[in-house]
Design a protein that fits this description.
Largest sheet: 8 strands, antiparallel
Radius of gyration: 32 Å
Number of strands: 36
Shape: elongated
């Protein structure tokens, strides 16, 4: 890896421009052994330079002939229209390269909190991560939250400090900020070498060599560090060596080092690579994508220090009945088990599924089983189907290159699967399996939409199915009380992307205000007289009923009591009265919301031997309830949810103050891990419509919350 010094195998990328041309090939990159694959996710806050780093790596290895640019909208990673428009990544993309005989699948993940689902999909498909930090910015709370996402899945990492070619770049300050935020095991493997104010090279702390970068040369020139450079880097070199030795499996190294022995560079390099692959040590690399600074060192880190798929544990699998199916191994000869980590809809190819193969070998023209479980609450019905893989590709961003097969440990794309969705398992038809699903973030911001016209409703329904198939963080709900079509999104940016995708498919739609599903009840006793008498020649309609209505306690539901005497209402018509009352309760009696928690007592009425009917007494019952409502006082009830907010301790005060402004009642606080606090409160649902956005603003993007329905409560006069 790069600590030994560059060997000149990497090429420095050329500068991007509008005349960008791709280095095209008729076939995709093919891996023949899991040991020669590296799956690496690029993780970092939006705007730190992940996409341009991918461009530089692809250009350095000849996958593309010249770098694209975000401003021109021609980068490999950001090819979706919403990405080009917003000039930031919003979906997971894959770009493979080959360096030193190793295939590296680069997974460019979005850095904005709304697209955490895409980040988690990328981490699921990856075996290691490049955590990218800009040399221009401090480590904010959102970046720390991304590091925690990586910690949660235990993925090995290296920290990449980007944009070192900028005049305001400060490598030393950024390293110090990383160590404060991520811990002391984040240690530089190189130091920048400056010519005047510009960084023109990198000093390898273990090798003692300097790689000098010059835009006119294709590869960095390597020389021995001079006396001054070695002296100025001595302290940093000691920190790196001590960190490596502390993670070494050779327990004698520390004693030998402290005793003054000079530890062999090859030994230190080997131990560093082992510690990085194990995920217990996080080297810091320095890069500048535009000039190519550090790209060769980064490529060597990717291929030499990062683990191959055979070194990582695989997710658990079960059969279709849920019975554990044993541990998988990353073996091309094993049972086929892969997972769809992203789904897109191509106008020509149909569904295109990005699949990480965990075990076995997926071949073109093979029969596979596609199974989906665990997302029914989000509108994704559980499904199983047997399909044939007719087209298999190696993805390069949005481009697809044909390949005949894909082995365990590699990533491929499958086109024209009829029913596959993100999160589904792809396995052998004769041995169907289900891979344990990864944790999906809960969408908590509702967006109400409606078709622009009746003719657009069918198109909207079809397009929603396609969009939801590729986005497990999207939940589609048709609210039974308000009859609104609700898209539950991760936030405002996510909602905009979903709407853009629908419109790109030709759907004409509009957003409308979200209606909170209120309910109605009687605030006190009331009586109602329902008289439904009509005579227009022939068979008439005749039904009269008198009712008494009284409120019940919250959550008691509905009671119907018959207290008629003397058969004033024949027994076979009494259920008709109740049916009419229930129908009117669903329609509402004041504001059009369902009526709940009342007891209705039938106390009198009249019937006609000829003109009375079931329909007449239903109408009379409904009319009696409306009359009672007009004579009594109706109370509106609003839904209240239990909300659990997890936030860094420093934001607890602002969060609790904000909850009070939302008519929230804090019911408790508990300490959570990592200097965080969980605040539990009861908050009216109407105050939570945009809380996902507002909590993010309050907590610098670090706050998270869960909600669950508690009950309906009376709407206070001040809020009605």
């Amino acid at each position: 890896m790069s600590v030994k010094g560059t060997n000149g195998r990497g090429k420095v990328p050329g500068r991007g421009g509008s005349d960008l041309r791709r280095a095209d090939a008729s076939a995709g990159l093919q891996a023949d052994a899991p040991e020669k694959v590296r799956n690496v996710a690029l993780v970092g806050h939006s705007g730190v330079g992940k996409t341009m780093l991918v461009e530089a790596l692809l250009a350095a290895t000849g996958v593309i002939s010249r770098m694209g640019s975000i401003a021109d909208g021609n980068t490999v990673s950001d090819a979706e229209p919403s990405e080009i428009h917003q000039q930031r990544s919003v979906v997971l993309s894959v770009a493979p390269l080959v360096f030193d005989g190793i295939k590296v699948n680069l997974l460019d993940t979005p850095g904005y909190a709304d697209f955490t689902g895409e980040l988690r999909a990328g981490l699921r498909a990856a075996d290691a991560a490049l955590f990218v930090v800009s040399a221009l910015d401090d480590i904010d709370a959102a970046t720390t939250a991304l590091w925690a996402e990586c910690d949660q899945v235990g993925v090995p990492r290296a920290v990449v400090i980007s944009r070192l070619d900028h005049p305001r770049a400060n490598f030393e300050a950024t390293v110090a900020a990383c160590q404060r935020a991520f811990g002391d095991l984040v240690v530089p493997a190189h130091l920048p070498v400056r010519t005047g104010a510009a960084i023109t090279g990198l000093l390898g702390l273990l090798s003692g060599t300097v790689s000098e970068y010059d835009a006119a040369d294709a590869a960095p020139a390597v020389r021995e560090a001079n006396t001054e450079e070695l002296a100025s880097s001595e302290a940093a070199r000691g920190v790196l060596i001590e960190g490596i030795i502390s993670e070494s499996e050779d327990e004698t190294l520390m004693d030998r080092y402290l005793g003054g022995e000079e530890i062999d560079v090859d030994t230190l390099t080997s131990d560093l690579e082992t510690a990085v692959a194990r995920g217990s040590f996080f080297p810091v690399l320095a890069t500048a994508a535009e000039t190519g600074l550090g790209i060769t060192e980064l490529l060597e880190m990717l291929t030499r220090a990062f683990p191959s798929p055979v070194e990582r544990d695989l997710p658990a699998v079960t059969d279709l009945a849920g019975t554990p199916a044993g541990l998988l191994a990353c073996d091309p000869a094993g049972p086929l088990a892969g997972e769809v980590v992203r789904t897109t809809i191509d106008p020509f190819l149909g569904r295109v599924c990005l699949v990480r193969i965990f075990s076995g070998t997926l071949r073109q023209e093979s029969a596979v089983h596609v199974g989906g479980r665990g997302l029914s609450e989000r509108g994704h019905e559980e499904h199983d189907s047997d399909e044939r893989v007719t087209h298999l590709y190696s993805p390069v961003g949005s481009s697809l290159k044909p390949v005949p097969y894909c082995i365990a440990g590699d990533i491929c794309a499958i086109a024209k699967l009829a029913n596959a969705e993100t999160g589904d398992t792809v396995s052998a038809k004769e041995n169907p399996l289900l891979v344990e699903s990864w944790d999906m973030p809960e969408p908590l911001m509702p967006v109400a939409i409606e078709a622009a016209s009746r003719s657009d409703e069918d198109a909207l329904a079809k397009s929603l199915g396609k969009v939801a198939a590729g986005d497990p963080t999207l939940r589609v709900e048709r609210n039974s009380e308000t009859h609104q079509l609700i898209l539950w999104c991760m936030g405002e940016a996510h909602g905009e992307v979903v709407l853009d995708r629908l419109r790109d498919q030709g759907v004409k739609l509009a957003t409308v205000p979200v209606v909170t599903p209120l309910r109605e009840t009687f605030a006190g006793p009331a009586t109602g007289h329902g008289r439904h008498v009509k005579q227009s020649g022939g068979h008439g309609q005749y039904a009269i009923c008198d009712i008494e209505v009284e409120p019940l306690e919250r959550g008691a539901g509905f009671e119907f009591v018959d207290k008629t005497v003397g058969g004033v209402v024949p027994g076979h018509y009494i259920p008709s009265v109740e049916k009419g009352v229930r129908a009117q309760m669903q329609k509402g009696v004041s504001a059009g919301f369902p009526v709940v928690d009342i007891r209705v007592t039938l106390v009198g009425g009249k019937a006609h031997s000829v003109d009375s009917s079931d329909a007449a007494f239903q109408a009379a019952g409904a009319l009696a309830l409306r009359e009672a409502a007009a004579a009594g006082r109706i109370q509106l009830l609003e839904p209240v949810s239990s909300v659990a907010i997890t936030t860094p301790d420093e934001y607890v005060g602002p969060v609790m103050s904000d909850l009070s402004s939302r008519r929230g009642r804090v019911t408790g606080t508990t300490s959570a891990s990592g200097e965080r606090t969980e605040v539990v409160a009861e908050v009216p649902d109407g105050e939570l419509l945009r809380y996902a956005i507002q909590l993010r603003a309050l907590t610098a993007g670090t706050g998270r919350f869960r909600r669950s329905y508690l009950r309906h409560e009376p709407v206070p006069a001040s809020a009605s």
